[in-house]
Amino acid sequence: MQGEACGDSAATNYFVLMDPGENDVVALLALNSIKGLGPVRIKALVEQYGSPFSLFEQQGRAALVQWAGVFSKDVIDPPALLDAAGQQLAKAASLGIVVLTWDHDAYPSLLREIYAPPPVLFVKGKLDSFARHACGVVGTRKPSHYGRTAAAHIVKQLVEKRVVIVSGLAHGIDTVAHETCLESGGVTIAVLGGGVDNVYPAANRGLAERIVESGALVSEFGLGAEPEAYHFPRRNRIISGLSAGVLVVEAPVKSGSLITANYALQQGRDVFAVPGPIFSSTSEGTFNLLKSGAIPVRGGSDIVENMEHLSLPGFADVKAPGVGVVQAMPLDLLSTDEQRIVGVLSAEPLRLDTIAEKAGREVSQLFDILLNLELKGLIRQVAGQQYVRVE
Q1: Based on the domain organization, do 30 and 139 belong to the same domain?
Q2: Is 155 found in the same domain as 251?
Q3: 185 lies in the same domain as 133
Q4: CATH code (residue 287)
Q5: Residues contacting 83, CB < 8 A, separation 6+
Q6: Contact by Cβ (8 Å): 287, 276
Q7: Which long-range contacts (CB under 8 A, 24 or more apart) does 338-346 make?
Q8: pTM for the complete prediction?
Q9: What pLDDT digit, counting tens, does each position of 12-69 carry?
Q10: Cα–Cα distance for residue pair 368/196, rounded to 1 Å
């Protein structure tokens, strides 16, 4: 695989692939690497020009630079993007990592149905892990003895029913879920907030190696990507997107697990919660989920009973829009904070500090909310830390 930069010639002249069939894969990898562009905008660009690689041909190159530059702080250099993407694909092959684009037959069918599915998935492990019903299992990084015991009890029973366990490889409940699944002879999928070749936390690298033997490590982030804080909300939507339902074992009021549960609701998936001691702070989040209609769970059968009527592929109630369709998430599916932010924004750009002031929130509280709204196609970031509402 080799690259050749020639700014005025066709894409096939400035980037020559050993296998022409890889053109669209490399082009989609290149688009996926542009920070701030996002799955929704990538879909729209692909639809406009017919295929990912068409964007990099002479006809679409100017539009890519002009449009992508609005959404990203990166310098948009198409030949360099393609060359780097080609190197990523070659590196993935050398490491035994499969790159799945959203039109690949092995791309998880449930994940393809969500709003803003990842254009690219890096997968290390067994692709047939995606072919069975799965349940996401998430919770606090600092679980109580009760939480650990409950998670292990339920996961064992799910494995007996051949349910795949999906989690995020974090400390706490995630680790309990993965380890219990493996000890019970089951299949588990770990969704990462960085590259699949850069496992975080480091303490779970041995666990990750064991997961790959029967399950899979999955990420939408390129090889070598660091586990940045803003990656994890995006990671959470994949956990729920791969799953028929999500179980929250223990979670405080402010918890990434609740973000995962919220994505599950938006994706038309079931949300389950383990009732906890009323005096425990790690039960406050699950208590609120139960008040809001989550299904209470004491054992794996409570989950399986709600999955028996489902059949793969494609059983989610909420369908993702087709490639290239930019469709806003209905406002009544947004959280209260998300609705407040959308109400503050308009076609006129607002700085981050101004948004915080108008919304009555601290700047530090806005990052996850703004990212979620960008993924849902409702807002976009323009120059600097300024945002506008997408009409």
Answers
A1: no
A2: yes
A3: yes
A4: 3.40.50.450
A5: 3, 5, 15
A6: yes
A7: 338/369, 338/372, 338/373, 338/378, 341/366, 341/369, 341/370, 341/373, 341/379, 342/373, 342/378, 342/379, 342/389, 345/379, 345/387, 345/388, 345/389, 346/388, 346/389
A8: 0.76
A9: 443 444 455 688 999 999 999 887 778 888 888 888 888 888 888 765 667 676 666 6
A10: 22
Helices 23-32 and 78-94, packing angle to 10 deg: 110
> Rounded CA gap, 84 and 141, in Å?
35
Q: What is the dihedral of CA 258, 261, 262, 263, to 10 degrees?
A: 130
Q: How far apart are CA 220 and CA 195, in angstroms?
A: 8
User: Who contacts 95 (Cβ-Cβ below 8 Å, separation ≥6)?
Assistant: 124, 197, 223
What are residue 387's phi and psi, to 5 degrees? -130, 150
Q: Which residue segment(s) compose the domain that 197 sits in?
A: 123-304
The pair of three-digit structure tokens given for residue 332, joined into one six-digit string: 């009544």
